[in-house]
Amino acid sequence: xxxxxxxxxxxxxxxxxxxxxxxxxxxxxxxxxxxxxxxxxxxxxxxxxxxxxxxxxxxxxxxxxxxxxxxxxxxxxxxxxxxxxxxxxxxxxxxxxxxxxxxxxxxxxxxxxxxxxxxxxxxxxxxxxxxxxxxxxxxxxxxxxxxxxxxxxxxxxxxxxx
Length: 162
Prior knowledge:
It holds the Pfam family Germane. It is a single chain. By secondary structure, this protein is of the alpha+beta class. It contains three helices and five strands, in the order αββαβββα. It has helices spanning 12-56, 96-111, 141-161, and strands spanning 72-78, 81-86, 118-123, 126-127, 139-140.
């Protein structure tokens, strides 16, 4: 014999479970977005590490432009702004041309990531000049692209008129 009170009604624990499940359904999209943005940040951080590890690589090799012993001490990527903090060894060179190559490599590496629109370089935690007078402080991607286009145009016209 079935009790009329139990037919067509749910027990309190079943009702609680359904409410809990429905609540999770409403909460879960926001929760999953948080996880996704956190995972995206981890991927971006790994990308920065990999790119600059490759750039710095074995700096003792003759074909490396970055001075020997240079390390990326820290970095941050927030609001499309990449801040790189290099060890003081990055200043162990001489010559304007070499400095231009070093700066170009740092900017090319950083701006190869689509999410980076600005780059600042610190040396031992401070905004500092490179030996030949260059400072990279909130350098804009659009300025870098414009400068590259000018240089490529100069090279192209020099080859065609030379």
